[in-house]
Design a protein that fits this description.
transmembrane helix, single chain, mainly beta, eight-stranded parallel sheet, 583 residues, 21-stranded mixed sheet, 4 helices, transmembrane
Length: 583
């Protein structure tokens, strides 16, 4: 996203200023624009409605800029935010756009529903310096003809539906500084012709299906500041040449099949500020030289095969580090390393690192915003430690052996997500959910503990989106005030001792897509009001004491029969029909 903002800034700087003596646009360019307008069957942005009149260069055609001397269109900039789902364009890219012979900037971004392929006529846009067609629904192969644009400096086709291999012809774009092909379905290797792209500053090929090794020639891109090859199928080791990229600031290689150790030469990446190698198969020791990276603030080496011992970190080691994630490697730490406890870190992630004993005491607890120590062997009471983490927003301590009463837990005001599932926590939910509960709290995960008591009433001030309290000892009824949780997306109260009927008010939770009430003592009928929840993707009413007709309508009657089994006398689709005496 930072790269796209940079592109926008370039566009603003390079925009031509309209003057009172500006020439009227040429008939050829006007015809090309109107042909594109005709190829758009629906435009909820309203932009194209401004394209009226004979002069497309008078400043009233939104998104169109011209050379004031010639009346030739030089910039066509149509962009829309992905955060505004009601604003979009439907249609195709008209081949007529290839007739805009003086076009330098073509920016059609975020229209969401422009489909079809990139016309081959785009090869005629030989003055083009910026081609940005991201976040549409374009499909087919990336056309080879784009390699015939000699002055192209920025190429972004991210967020479309392109498939096939990356064309080798793109290696002819020797002026290219930004290439973004992320979030498509491209496959095959990185073309060897890319070795010619020595001016590249940003290369983003993330979220595709690209495979093969990371080519050695990437080390020749000495101006590279951003390298994102994440979420692909790249394999093999990290080429030694990568350590020559002295200007590299962000390297994201996560979610691939990369193997082998990291070289001590990693300290040569002197500009590196963010390094993410997570979810690969890297092995060996984490090199001590990595601690000499002066600008590194984010380090994610999680879900690999790195082994003990960790490098010794001196007083001057990792001077800029704010976020560290070493989760799920072959590390047997025993205790949180002293340098992690003492540094001014905002994010600490050490899940599955075989930590043991009492909760670690951090030197600077007030700085921590995100903490994940899940899947370890921590014991005792954490409530006092969490209370001191005044900046905490997310905490995950699941799958430990923590033992304390919820009445002792005083979460900091800004916590949005707390996960204490699979521990030995006792007490009542009313200690955590009451009139004093922070409006920032969105997710509560307490599954598989020893929590008892009743489900408390829910106040209107709550903004909960996730409430997972399954596998406890909770009793009583589901309160009708459940309807106050209007933002709730997921509700799991399975494997408890909850009784009574499902309140009709549950059907007011329009955002709910996951509902699990299984293995309780609920009775009565499944209320018809649940048919109002159109977002529902998963339900389970299994193993209760329900009786009567399952509400006959989507989505309830399309879930599998397993969702309704082991009740007293439920009937109707997807179960067998009700007998005539059952209503």
């Amino acid at each position: 996203m930072q790269n796209l903002r940079w592109v926008l800034n370039i566009l603003l700087v390079s925009s031509l200023v309209h003057t009172s003596s500006q020439a009227i646009c040429t008939s050829q360019d006007r015809a090309a624009l109107l042909a594109f307008k005709s190829s758009i069957t629906k435009d909820t942005t309203g932009v194209l409605s401004s394209w009226v009149g004979k002069d497309c260069c008078n400043g009233e055609w939104e998104g169109v800029q011209c050379n004031p001397s010639t009346g030739k269109v030089t910039n066509l900039v149509l962009r829309n935010s992905l955060n505004e789902p009601t604003l979009y364009m439907k249609g195709t890219l008209s081949p007529s756009l290839g007739n805009l012979g003086s076009l330098q900037v073509l920016f059609i971004s975020g229209t969401k529903f422009i489909t079809g392929s990139i016309p081959n006529s785009f090869s005629k846009l030989t003055s083009l310096t910026q081609l940005v067609l991201d976040d549409n629904s374009l499909q087919g192969n990336v056309p080879s003809c784009l390699g015939h644009l000699p002055f192209l400096e920025i190429l972004s086709l991210a967020g479309n539906r392109f498939s096939g291999v990356v064309p080798a012809s793109l290696g002819s774009l020797r002026s290219l500084s930004v290439m973004m092909l992320a979030r498509n379905s491209l496959s095959g290797p990185i073309p060897v012709t890319f070795k010619n792209l020595v001016k590249l500053q940003t290369l983003d090929l993330s979220f595709n299906m690209l495979s093969g090794p990371i080519p050695d020639f990437i080390g020749q891109f000495r101006n590279l500041t951003t390298l994102d090859l994440s979420s692909n199928r790249f394999s093999g080791g990290l080429p030694v040449s990568v350590y020559n990229l002295g200007k590299l600031q962000d390297m994201s290689l996560e979610r691939n099949d990369l193997t082998g150790p990291l070289s001590d030469r990693i300290s040569n990446l002197k500009s590196l500020s963010s390094l993410d190698l997570s979810s690969n198969k890297f092995n060996g020791h984490i090199p001590a030289s990595i601690t000499r990276l002066q600008n590194l603030w984010s380090l994610n080496l999680s879900r690999n095969h790195f082994s003990d011992p960790l490098p010794v970190v001196g007083i001057r080691g990792f001077p800029s580090l704010l976020s560290v994630d070493l989760s799920y490697n072959n590390l047997n730490l025993g205790a949180v390393p002293s340098w992690i406890k003492e540094k001014r870190l905002t994010e600490i992630n050490l899940a599955g690192c075989k930590l043991r004993g009492a909760f670690p005491k951090l030197t600077r607890p007030h700085d921590v915003t995100s903490l994940d120590l899940s899947d370890n062997f921590l014991t005792g009471d954490v409530s006092a430690f969490l209370a001191n983490m005044t900046s905490l927003q997310r905490v995950k301590l699941s799958k430990n052996q923590l033992r304390f009463d919820l009445s002792k837990l005083k979460l900091p005001e800004g916590v949005s997500s707390v996960d204490l599932s699979s521990n030995l926590v006792t007490g009542s939910l009313s200690s955590l959910l009451n009139d004093k509960t922070s409006r920032f709290l969105e997710e509560i995960h307490l599954t598989n503990n020893q929590i008892s008591g009743r489900i408390p009433d829910f106040s209107e001030s709550l903004n909960l989106k996730v409430l997972n309290i399954g596998s406890n000892k909770i009793s009583g009824q589901i309160p009708s005030s459940i309807s106050n949780l209007v933002e709730l997306v997921r509700l799991d109260i399975s494997r408890n001792h909850v009784s009574g009927v499902i309140p009709q008010s549950l059907g007011q939770l329009m955002q709910l897509n996951w509902l699990d009430l299984s293995i309780n003592a609920l009775t009565g009928r499944i209320p018809d009001s649940l048919l109002n929840i159109k977002a529902m993707k998963h339900v389970s009413f299994r193993a209760n004491r329900f009786c009567g007709l399952i509400p006959q309508g989507r989505p309830l009657n399309i879930f599998p029969a397993a969702a309704y089994l082991h009740n007293l006398c439920l009937c109707g689709k997807p179960l067998p029909p009700c007998r005539k005496t059952t209503k």
